Amino acid sequence: MSKEVTEIHFGDNSVIRGDGTGVINALAYSNATSTTKDQFDALAQEINKTSVAKGFWDGERDMDKFAGKLALIHSEVTEVLEALRKSQGKDKVTEEFADILIRSFDLYAVLVEAGEADPHLYEVTRNKMKVNKERPNKHGNRWG
Ligand SMILES: [Mg+2]
Question: In CA terms, which of 25, 30, 68, 106 is 20 to 30 Å from 58?
Fold first, then answer.
């Protein structure tokens, strides 16, 4: 069975690609224009659509549920740590990063829908990256 591939192209020839199941196959961007500012939101909605279809959002959507979803993002971060610690290979490390992004985009989409987050994640990310470039070494902290 073939999967529908979704590609979101940016003005600078970079692309975000989903395989129709919410899996991000590639993620690259730079120098995107303002016309691309909602593309993360589109990807988040695609990921969430699959998540909802698979039953991950059944029942109440409340703060306890959101907290649980955040804990699962943490668990994916730990899976990257364990993949590195146990030398499980590049594929495993990359897959766990994809899990972090998928879970993060999924929760973000729901929080936007619930009025707990603003849309335009791509634009906010780009703006934050710009701000971070102007911050001091280690953002003024001892490590990080
Ligand atoms: Mg995982």
Answer: 25
Residue 43 Cα to ligand 1 midpoint, Å, equals: 19
The pLDDT tens digits for 41-67 are 999 999 999 999 999 999 999 999 999
pLDDT, tens only, 115-128: 999 999 999 999 99
Identify whether the C-beta of residue 82 lies closer than 8 Å to the C-beta of residue 73. no
Residue ranges of domains in the chain, CATH in brackets: 33-140 (1.10.287)
Q: For residue 33, how far is its CA from the centre of ligand 1 (angstroms)?
A: 32
Burial of 69 (0-12, 13-18, 19+ CB in 10 A): buried
